[in-house]
Predict the 3D structure of the following.
Amino acid sequence: MPASRLVKILIMVFVMVNVAMAAQSPAQVEKDIGDKVYCLCGCVTSLNTCAHLNCEVKAEMHKIIRADLSEGKGEPAILQDLVDHYGEKVLAAPPARGFNLTAWILPGVGLLIGLLLAITIVRRWRRPAVQAAAPEGAPPVAENVLSAVEEEMKKYVD
């Protein structure tokens, strides 16, 4: 295949993908944004899943989103408008910067620490136990005493 034909095909695919991504309906963009923010009426759910009938907060937030969409703003700009109006508490996921970065990093760190701890414990369990040697100068145990102890233990084990 000639290189010029390959370049034309790649450009055509690139244009089709960009057109398909840009062709999202405003309703779909509104739904996507509604999944990324909380309704602040006290229901502690996303904006799209707020089940309160006639929720004024939900209606106001959708009104802001629709107004921004009609002005031609994109999703990041609309999310920033909501943050400017309500604060960062409106976001369902904290932004990955500053102190909020700990919310993104600590679960992975905790998982790694737990995994390392589990591996260490399993390795110690599998390691054979070290037999304690008799102290120096201790008299050896007589065979008849050892056999008596073994007989006594068999009574309780069986």
